[in-house]
Specification:
The chain has two helices and no strands. With about 80 residues, it is mainly alpha-helical. The N and C termini lie far apart (about 70 Å).
């Protein structure tokens, strides 16, 4: 193996570590910034969790209703063809 190939393989091996480091650092910086905004604005994280759960429940309910409406329509259409 020549020197260029060896260097290429080493860089390739390190690429995953570099990507993971950049991702972790970005997430950490973003999380710290968000936490600072929440604290500055006096927003309680528990309230946000409650609102998020309510939103998820509402969205799942809408999806379920659309699924059943579509299913009912398909069955009705097949029965009445």
């Amino acid at each position: 193996m020549n020197l260029a190939a060896a260097i290429g393989l080493e860089l390739q091996d390190d690429l995953g570590n570099w990507i993971q480091h950049q991702y972790d650092r970005g997430v950490l910086v973003q999380g710290n910034s968000a936490q600072e905004v929440l604290e500055t604005q006096g927003i309680d994280i528990q309230v946000l969790h409650q609102q998020w759960n309510l939103q998820r429940t509402a969205q799942l309910s809408i999806r379920a209703r659309k699924f059943w409406d579509t299913t009912t329509l398909l069955v009705y259409t097949q029965v009445n063809v």
